[in-house]
Amino acid sequence: MMDKECISQLADEHGTPFYLVECESLMRQYEELKESLPEDSAIAYATKANYTPSVVRTFRDLGMHFDVFSPGELNLLMRNGCDPGRVIYTSVAEQEEEFMFGLKNGVSRFVLGSINGIKNFGEAVEREGVGEVEVLLRIQPVTNVDAAVSTSGVESKFGTVFSGEKDSVGNALKTIDERDLDFAGFHFHLGSQIKSPDPYVRAINETFDFAWSHDIDVRVLDIGGGFPVSYGFDVPPIEKFGAEIGKAIEKWREKLGGFELIVEPGRFLTADSTVLVVKVVNEKEMYGKRVLIVNGSEDMVSVDRHDMRIEIGAITDSTKPVEAAIAGNLCHSLDWIVKEPIELPGVGLEDLLVFEKTGAYVMNHNIPYNLRKVPKVLTVSEGEVEEEEHPFSTVGKIKAVYG
Ligand SMILES: Cc1ncc(COP(=O)(O)O)c(C=O)c1O
Predict the structure, then answer these.
(1) Which of 69, 132, 167, 264 is the most buried (most CB within 10 A)?
(2) CB 376 near ligand 1, within 6 Å
């Protein structure tokens, strides 16, 4: 990331708050992941992690695939020149209209996860009269995964289950068959910040054991995202995930023949790429503590349900450490960025604070509460800085296309 002097200069030129996204970081993460995974794996960026146009275009230029969850996300990709033929469309609601939107625009791979969704998709395919479209079925081959956010198990609303309930894998496969849809294989996404490669290996084995014992032809396996990022604590290196996943995949390829492997990382690719820069705009002393008030808010720094740890840098001339809490500028009582005082290097009025690793699942949770401005988004690539649209400034344009 840029040095403090450059960040100060950008603050003078553009004002604060702003996000600064470094495109080279995205490329580095991509290369590291690619090196770690089996050679022919398809890497699909989980678009929801960071909607900055330069992020999308960087991954487009690397020849990546994309995973989207809504017409809005698909529209963002198209507006940035991505090929819909490289998009995997997944949805939670699985409505006919969104499938039609995807089909009309040339998406040919859909992940389905409910009986109603399969029916809706079948209707959309018939109405659109399209030919070659592939269906992956979302399943939960292992549950309660050791992860910061688990998306598999009794608390999960995603995909189909192996039990005999209505939305079971068996019923789903039968419905796919009845609708004459092209079943290409399975998809699972086990969670985010997954703590070890074991759940992936178990899930791969469970999936293929099931396919093998039911004589199901699997041409594609999409194992989701979830690879962890270090927010100031140790996580296993990506090479370890790649090596263990690679061994399990090779074993099943030897047994069943070739199939395509897809991964869908979001956080691993983007978290490190971005910092948020805010200014201390007020300070006060109350209840025995010093409180710095900044021109940003907690939603701009981290999002609890995505489990992040805050890492802070400061740009200040003072060297005398201070103990302070950091509050945001929103009129809601939970808007604390750091509630209990911590030691900071001499930060006071007008100084800048830099929050690291805000590249995944942060910017896209910014709230316009109090009708204050969302931060600017600056990107830096090969030393050139550019100002970009904040993702939310595109939402009106998306509606115009979808509605
Ligand atoms: C289906 C799916 N794929 C991929 C991802 C990306 O996960 P991560 O950012 O942890 O890699 C998510 C995140 O929620 C997801 O729901």
Answers:
(1) 264
(2) no
32 C-alpha to ligand 1 centroid (Å): 18
Domains and their CATH numbers in the chain: 4-20+272-390 (2.40.37.10), 23-270 (3.20.20.10)
- Locate the ligand 1 atom nearest the alpha carbon of residue 193 and give its number: 10
> Can the peptide bond before residue 368 be classed as cis, meaning omega within 30 degrees of 0?
no
| pLDDT one-digit tens code per residue, 145-170 | 888 888 888 888 999 999 889 999 99
287-310 per-position pLDDT tens digit: 999 999 999 999 999 877 667 777
Measured in Å, residue 227 CA sits from the centre of ligand 1 at: 9
158 lines ligand 1 (CB under 6 A): no
Separation of CA 46 and ligand 1 centre (Å): 6
Helices (H) and strands (E) counted in the chain, each on its own, are 12, 19
Asked, as a colleague might, if the bond just before 17 is cis with ω within 30 of 0, I would say yes
Q: Using alpha carbons, select from 354, 339, 259, 289 the residue that is nearest to residue 2.
A: 354
* Total residue length of the chain: 403
Say if residue 62 is exposed, middle or buried (CB neighbours under 10 Å; 0-12, 13-18, 19+).
Answer: middle
| 311 pLDDT tier (thresholds 50, 70, 90) | confident
